[in-house]
Design a protein that fits this description.
Strand order of the largest sheet: 6-10-11-9-8-7
Helix content: 10-25%
Largest sheet: 6 strands, mixed
Radius of gyration: 39 Å
Strand content: 35-45%
CATH superfamily of the largest domain: Nucleic acid-binding proteins
Number of strands: 21
Distance between the termini: 107 Å
Shape: elongated
Structural class: mainly beta
Number of domains: 4
CATH class of the largest domain: Mainly Beta
Length: 349
């Protein structure tokens, strides 16, 4: 930075200064409320202490750029800002590095039917109406003051004009996320998704920008009438991937697959040799199906219901009859359970 001052030139310039102009200067006085800053000749300015990130470290003789932000204050000192000058310099540096396809941030300062306007340092930024969003925006003026990211679609560094697209950046990010999703997804993977829309038959779930679906039958082991009994739109849940179709880009999810099946748990809770009560729900040629009060169903084979070689199962138990049975065996993997009629003396067989 050139620290030499041409006082006459600065005095002439200052007579017609405009807000937003940058000046080099030097701290000449440090006070409790700020510093007196000379920007050339007789032109002294004032910088409030709140404008500094490191006011305690500022000392007389420090040189830096400031931006003119107002007219003279009550003391006759020009109001300037170091922080705003720093931000402008940084913004200009960022703008100078931009090229076609670069990503940049901006704050909407103006809006019309034509699109959005902003500034990036000394550069003018324009986002055409068709590039503002990938969704319909009713009134662009509601976007004023909000910060967005866009991709550079046109740039003229001589005229300092940038044309950008928020929509294109959104699509690029979406494509990147989709590619990452499909390269890492697999059956039985546990994923986190946000419920976008609840339908009577299930719900659409967003997983990192990719749409998936969970059918109502895969939400809970208990019977539910509507997915809203389990899910809430806008909320995030964990799911297990149960089906994939990469060609059609369809993903089926299950929430209940992350929970323990009550029937399986009930089977696991059974103890060999223990006696339980149940009801006869089906008569077969070789035995009967008994459903315990816990919901577990199992087989009472004729050989475990009577010591007689000629007696039929329907002569021992009747449909809908409540009986007591002893657990003989449990196969958790297949879910099969076998019973013996309580009180049957196996020694007599």
């Amino acid at each position: 930075m050139n620290n030499e001052f041409n006082l006459n030139a600065i005095d002439q310039t200052f007579a017609s200064y405009k807000k937003g102009q940058l000046f080099d200067g030097v701290v000449v006085i440090k006070r409790a409320d700020g510093v007196i800053f000379n920007i050339g000749g007789k032109n002294d300015a004032f910088i409030d202490k709140e404008d500094f990130d490191n006011f305690e470290e500022i000392k007389i003789g420090d040189r830096f750029k400031v931006m003119l932000t107002g007219s003279k204050n009550e003391e006759g000192l020009i109001e300037v800002s170091k922080s705003r000058a720093d931000n402008l310099v940084i913004a200009n540096q960022c703008a100078e590095k931009l090229k076609l396809g670069s990503k940049f941030s901006f704050v909407v300062t103006e809006a019309s039917n034509a699109g959005l306007n902003s500034k990036l340092g000394d550069y003018s930024v324009f986002i055409p109406a068709g590039e503002v969003s990938d969704k319909f925006v009713k009134d662009f003026k509601t976007l004023i003051g909000k910060q967005y990211e866009a991709t550079v679609t046109e740039i003229d560094k001589e005229s300092k004009n940038i044309v950008g697209s928020v929509k294109l950046l959104i699509e690029q990010i979406k494509e990147t996320n989709e590619n990452l999703f499909w390269s890492s997804i697999f059956i039985n993977k546990i994923v986190t998704g946000r419920v976008k829309k609840i339908m009577p038959y299930g719900a659409f779930v967003d997983i990192d920008g990719v749409d998936a679906f969970v059918h109502i039958s895969n939400l809970a082991y208990k019977r539910i009438e509507n997915p809203s009994e389990v899910l809430t739109e806008g909320e995030t849940y964990q799911f297990k991937v149960i089906e994939l179709d990469r060609e059609s880009k369809k993903v089926a999810l299950s929430k209940k697959a992350l929970e323990v099946d009550p029937k399986i748990q009930a089977i696991k809770d059974l103890k060999i040799g223990e006696v339980y009560e149940g009801i006869v729900v089906k008569i077969l040629a070789f035995g009967a199906i008994i459903r315990l009060d816990s919901g577990v169903s199992g087989l009472l084979h004729i050989s475990n219901a009577t010591t007689s070689n000629t007696q039929q199962i329907y002569e021992v138990v009747k449909l809908d009859q409540r009986v007591k049975v002893e657990v003989l065996s449990v196969d958790e993997e297949s879910g099969k359970v076998s019973f013996k009629l309580d009180g049957l003396n196996k020694q007599e067989m």
